[in-house]
Amino acid sequence: MDTSVSPLPEVNSTEEPQPAVRSLRELIDIVSGRSIQDQISTGEAGIAEPLPFPFLALVGQSEMKLALLLALINPALGGVLLLGPRGTGKTTAVRSLLDLLPDVVHSRCYYGCLPEDIEMGGIDAVCPDCARRYAEGQPLTTVDRVRLVELPLNAKLEDVVGGLDERALVHEQVRLRRGILSHADRNILYVDEVNLLANEIVDAILDAAAQGTYTVRRGPVTSTYNSRFVLIGSMNPEEGRLRPQIMDRFGLRVIVRGLSDPAERMEVFRRVQAYKINPRGSIVHYQAETQTARDEIQAARQALPHITIRDQVARAGISLVQALKIDSLRSDITLLEAARAYTAADGRSSVEIEDLRIVAPMALRLRCSTFMRDFTKNQAAEEDLIAEILERLL
Asked: How confident is the prediction for the chain on average, in pLDDT?
């Protein structure tokens, strides 16, 4: 893998930093060992608030960047968990996805009402405003960008799942307001320091992630919300372990390490300094490449349903999982879905063995359980003993 980065002028120079990777396709080429000729774009574009550090300005960390992009392309692979020490760019990388997020259908309503709610529960299943819009033939949804919804570490359970709506109480109505999990529907839910969450918050996330919906009951009022989100988490293993139940919900697992090449570390310093001095200028510098990557992500999402996996390739992936003595069937699904996303990103229509080779480390690491291996071994010995005694006495 080519880890070289183009040099950047001194911070006080009037020149802008040069991008190491300028599009999704180029990242695919780097990870797979291919290279393309650098092309520098100088076009400017409008800047929108907020001003995240440009994703394409991140130096190195190819596996982390690839995992995040694959999660944007294919929500079915189960999200991403980033593990590493402090200061290695985990949170910066996730927040820098803001300008790459593709389009998706969102509700126009404060309460998140959708046409499918009416189809399943009738007109009473939506709020009065949406019932009026529906009767008038107005759309209840709009196409908008996927949003990055962050779950604060100090969030309370009511913030996460929802509670009584104070706005409705003013009008002597009883209605539940949406929680963070509902706002994350069809979006990305990012949890920093995920290993430090309270158990009740973890349980709520697990339930919502498993079912795609969750129900809130407050006295006589009950509401069910959609919660089909891509879960991205980051953590520092020094600060505590992650519960196995929520670890299992993350499809791709990336070990984020500090950059070992002094030239790359110097490049990080220069790009961060350039961004701090002129964040708008840094974003504008990468704007054309960012738009190209966003268009490629959108195209890959649209192509994903047409990506096929031949039985021979799928069997090879399953054999790999079994050879690693991984029991979870979710491992098979994650591996093959990640390979489909990678194939779509690379502009092909059929998954090959090489695609499995590239995504396998992200999809299969941290899935082997020493406890379960010992438990199964001991249980097998007990089963043999029971069978032996049954044979002798009965």
From this structure: 80
